[in-house]
Amino acid sequence: MKNKFLLLFTLFAACTFSACNKGGKTGLLVPKDAGLVLHIDLASLSSKLSWKEIQQTVWFAEASKKADDSLAKKLLADPAASGVDTDGSLVIFMTRTGNSGYVAVEGKLKDVEKFKNSILEGSRGKASITKDGDLNFAKMEDSDDATLYFNDKIFVFVADASDTKKVAGNQSFPQPGESKKYTLDSLKYFAKNIFSLKGKDLLDSDERFADLISDKADAHYWVNAGGLYGGLLSGPLAMMKIGDVLQGNISTGKANFENGKIVFDGKTFYNEKLADLFKKYAGKEVSNELLGKLPDQNVLAAFAMNYNPDGIKEFLKLLGVDGMANAAMAQFGYSVDEFIKANAGDLAFALTDFSIHKKPTTLTLENGEVIKYDDEKPDMKFVFGISVNDKAAFQKLVDLVGRNLKDKMPGTDSSTNHLKNKLQDKWFAFGTSDAEVDAFLNGNKKSAYADIFKGHNGGGFVDLQKFIIQAAASNKNTASKKAFDISAAFWKNINVFWDVKSGNATTHFEINLQDGSSNSLKQLNKYFDQMYLSIPKNKEDDLGFALPGDTTGPTPDAVAQ
Which pLDDT value is given to residue 108? Predict the structure, then answer.
């Protein structure tokens, strides 16, 4: 196991600075049926944060001192010593076949002899490299769930990604709908097949993938929902039409580390049936009236959206569960048609306070020993608003919920935080106080964060700094205070908005930092180093074990015992 870990460490270090083979439109050897693809442009990342800058951090310096393996020291000093071409990109993808799957990592080699030596040195003589046709095959003595092939130009690492349940010791018995672990011969076949991919067998024969990669970014992702999840559906899910709904849906996106923020932009291409449904029942832009109802003071998080209620019924039909949904609602004297009639399609939510209350309590073990601990329960203040289409139908829904569900949020103090609600002709609101409900219904507010949603089908906002400050106020551990202070000074907020137009969906998501003038990747490097330094390193620390460079605290093994 230790030798296997060393090989995987070597491969990880190599992969982290790898470049992919040139082939097809994008130069990426990815099979067309890949369910998940992650492409990282390391040349772009290194232009924003160099290896030298990483080496200057305290955690890296301590890790280098603690490294007792010659290969690890060599790679930490110079990743190119692995023989991998460090000027390029990294590609990781997952492919499913039936209920099983494998994950692959591939990269470009600059010096194949150095790469061979890295494998042999990293395994401490437990790996062997033999010829398999025109390719080199690296075999670990104690590994049958991963394989590595390479030639003079590229390497391909393939590992089993099946999900099996272990019973009767180490035996695996697949049940209906479960995955079956791939054999080593199967993994070898998959690895060798990747080298021979070309033309229509490549994912970049799909113009959507080729266009995605050509749009330069620090990272790209591709998710084929049908290929990734379709084979996993079993039991009641298999009886529905979820597989048909998932089939053909492609989600793509890119990520960039920009000055003061981390930005994600995504696009979803729906299959023909879903695209037609969204075209016919498209939502509208969130209205100024809805945005004016969101609170403008002490907001921790908020979202607003518009949808077309008529589309709900058609979507249930598409899933094949419309009859089931009506039957379930009929037990409560309601129906899908009444729900659609009641709602006008606007939703909004705002969280204005959140804290954790600790209550001393005890736990008595079977041997009579009594353990004292703090029972943590959340407490929150919020308001939720819904636009009303038919007041009578909506009032029936309110009465139904009131009779069948508890009138308070889980974890709140039942003596003080019963939910309040009010129904007007056009709006319904419920929340943790009459003041919040009335403020929402009265509206006419101008919240700066709400401008993020304007002109879109929906959006969300999270004030990270306020969350951190309130979490710090609830945490009485003085050892954590410095970490909270560092985080509060670093993180600012999260903004997101989305649209569904012409049968496709687009999403914009950004994490903003307090410092908007310098690159976010450089800032993250410094932030993680500051957080590392803030962690107590004596034997009294909260972690319960020693960190690198600390020899005074108990070891993880001692804690486990």
Answer: 86
Q: Is the dihedral of CA 191, 196, 202, 204 positive or negative?
A: positive
Half-sphere exposure (Cβ direction) of 483: Cα atoms closer than 13 Å: 16
Question: Residue-wise over 171-184: b if at least 16 C-beta within 10 A, else e?
Answer: eeeeeeebbbebee
**Residues 48-56: contacts with CB under 8 Å, at least 24 apart:** 48/218, 48/257, 48/519, 48/521, 48/522, 49/257, 49/519, 49/521, 49/522, 49/525, 51/79, 53/522, 53/525, 54/525
Give DSSP secondary structure letters for 82-129: GSB--SSEEEEEEEEETTEEEEEEEEEBS-HHHHHHHHHHHTTT-EEE
**Paired strand residues for 491:** 513
Q: How is residue 554 written in tokens?
A: 């108990």
Which pTM value belongs to this model?
Answer: 0.82
Sequence ranges of the domains in the chain: 2-219, 261-514, 525-561
Average pLDDT, integer, range 104-118: 91
Amino acid at 226: G
Distance CA 294, CA 301 (A): 10
Smallest CA-to-CA distance from 146 within 119, 193, 186, 100 is with: 186
Helix (H) or strand (E) holding 5: helix 2-15
Token digits for 470? 């309130």
SS3 440: helix
